[in-house]
Amino acid sequence: MKKIIILGAGTAGTIMLNKLRKALPRDEWTITIIDQHRTHYYQPGFLFIPFGIYNREDVIKPKADFFPPGVNVIFDETDKIHPEESSILMKDGTVHKYDYLIIATGTQTRPEETPGLKGDLWYKEIFDFYTIEGAMALREYFKRWEGGHLVMNIAEVPYKCPVAPLEFVFLADDYFTKIGIRNKVKISYVTPMSGAFTKPRATKMLSGLLEEKNIDVIPDFYLESVDNEKKVIRSYDEREISFDVLTIVPVNMGSEIIERSNMGDDLFFVPTDKHTLRSEQYENIFVLGDAANIPTSKAGSVAHFAADILFENLLSAIEGRELHAKFDGHANCYIETGGGKGSLIDFNYETEPLPGTFPLPGIGPFGLLKNTRMNHYGKVMFRWIYWHILLKGKEMPIDPLMSMAGKCKNC
Amino acid sequence: METRTIAGKSVSFTEDGYMSDMHEWNEDIAKELAKEENIELDDLHWKVLGFLREKQAAGVSLTIRSVGKSGIVDIKGFYTLFPGGPLKLSTKIAGLPKPASCV
Ligand SMILES: Cc1cc2nc3c(=O)[nH]c(=O)nc-3n(C[C@H](O)[C@H](O)[C@H](O)COP(=O)(O)OP(=O)(O)OC[C@H]3O[C@@H](n4cnc5c(N)ncnc54)[C@H](O)[C@@H]3O)c2cc1C
What pTM was computed for the model? Predict the structure, then answer.
């Protein structure tokens, strides 16, 4: 029997598990999936929890509900990958050998990387919404908050779902307006990038939204530390911004197992061929989802598109053929803009988000870089699609590679 | 897209003022671009520029943190070399694309 191990049962690992089990004969291939946690989180839903739009129950389900029959499931702690021996060492000393390994360990937030971030105010007046705990704590806090300065800060790039903090400030504007205290709330968006938007077309089409909603943008702010006593965030060039409540995207890094196995870059993302999705170092290792260092967004939609390519290439590798499928970095993200509207971006390694329409057979079209109700429904629908179609590795009516149909180059 | 003559060479730039093609770059161009930002390039600057160009060519995303871990300078030192926006300025002078997010 030949063996495939999938390390990590999040979005990417679960999609691959379903695809592979369907394709590979059971009498030839054992497929094993390993994760230390049993609960699957619908992470895009975390964004809505602080505003009481979703509850905990809306974003969690048992991981095992999405596993097909005929696979080995291991819920236990891992220690190291030994790529030279093609094996995985578990904390309890057990060793699992593989012929092929798919790394899908995602990215996790590391608040401890920033001095002072996990200090006295953590989950009292400083929150992340990239974890269920942070999102729930912020929900409780917002119920009682009477206003002040809300600072949304991004500690480091890259981080997963690059539009999530923008969506957060849009939804915050909407929420405080609805509960009648928007005039007592100042919202600042503090980013290490050169602006909230950095690509020319998106800047042109969407930056007006921030002004319209009275959200201050403070660019080029690279977080050094958080001062809990003075309630300020401090940058490396010694600028200070004071806050009443700080919501933060902490430094994102690859999984600790990548660190322990010495297989990552300086943020512990795995060096991966951006077209074939194979590890740059090891022929029998592929990398899917946020764990890879490929230069596109870390997003569920990317994992979904990339899964089709990885699947093709893994089958090629198994049959000793050349890896002919080439990933283009395709990403497709809805951006909630508040007030029941949303925007949509669709792009890849080469093509920045362009305006136009996004055709989706049977449902669309959606408006690219436009602010519409239809796009908001797209985001709402995404949760259903995520649980019922995406995770199960079923076909969706979107091509894995980006298409220029509907896009306008010169708008 | 805009074309300017720099150090005797015709060089094309994007709307944001970054060079469109990192292969058009040379050290004389870098000196001129640095001058436009009021920076005089010394040894340490050159090492950082070299590091960034190497990483970019390898397809790695550039971050302030990675420069800080490069062994050339720490993050504070990087700010001293390129005051204001170290990654922004250094990539510009190194002839690399603008560090951007997806939108
Ligand atoms: C607030 C927020 C909003 C978002 N919004 C969107 C959106 O609108 N659209 C979109 O497309 N994406 C969105 N995303 C991003 C999306 O959720 C992720 O990109 C996606 O889940 C990545 O899938 P993954 O499998 O790579 O990682 P994950 O789904 O995070 O899974 C990684 C898995 O690996 C496991 N693991 C880690 N280390 C180990 C180890 N050592 N051993 C075993 N298992 C391990 C973890 O337990 C986890 O189950 C959002 C994310 C957040 C946080």
Answer: 0.95
